[in-house]
Design goal:
By secondary structure, this protein is mainly alpha-helical. It has helices at 2-17, 24-79, 87-123, 128-173. 10% of the residues are buried.
């Protein structure tokens, strides 16, 4: 369409050069050219905003996927059964669970901060319903994270108690 419009504007300018052309023609061609330039500029700006929003949206989806995978992996690790009849296994599992909790806390804090920033940025161009959906997704991820951290804390407490029992048992044998 751009080529057609520019071609018509050029024909109008050429007609204006004709001494027999009506006086209003110059004014109309100038108005049409101004309107076209304004419309083209607006369309270009809107396209640029759309491309920027698309990048933000893609980044949001990537961050969400990373958090969900991280949470799922950690949930699987926390659910693993610990052999209670092996002191070394209890100690190793305790160490692993403490590291997992620390890693999850550190990684998810950064990721959740980024998610909230991206959500706020998307919210500036999204509808109210979409913004509510972003808020709901973030709240669900935070709730899942808190449940995971609580489960991890409970498992760590249990493993610490079991480790103490094993340590006392081994002291009594010695």
């Amino acid at each position: 369409q751009r080529a057609n419009i520019l071609g018509l504007l050029q024909k109008g300018k050429e007609l204006c050069k004709n001494p027999l052309a009506p006086g209003f023609l110059r004014e109309e061609v100038a108005n049409l050219e101004s309107l076209w330039n304004s419309s083209f500029s607006n369309a270009t700006n809107n396209l640029q905003k759309l491309k920027e929003t698309q990048k933000i949206w893609e980044n949001y989806k990537v961050q969400k996927t990373v958090i969900v995978k991280l949470l799922a992996d950690a949930e699987v690790e926390v659910q693993k059964i610990v052999p209670k009849h092996n002191h070394k296994a209890v100690q190793n599992t305790l160490k692993v669970n403490k590291e997992i909790r620390s890693d999850i806390k550190r990684a998810t804090e950064d990721l959740m901060t980024k998610m909230k920033e991206l959500s706020a940025t998307l919210g500036s161009v999204a509808s109210k319903e979409q913004q509510e959906e972003f808020d709901k997704e973030i709240a669900e991820l935070e709730a899942r994270l808190n449940e995971l951290l609580s489960a991890c804390d409970e498992k760590i407490k249990s493993l610490e108690l079991m480790n103490i029992k094993w340590t006392n048992f081994n002291k009594n044998l010695a």
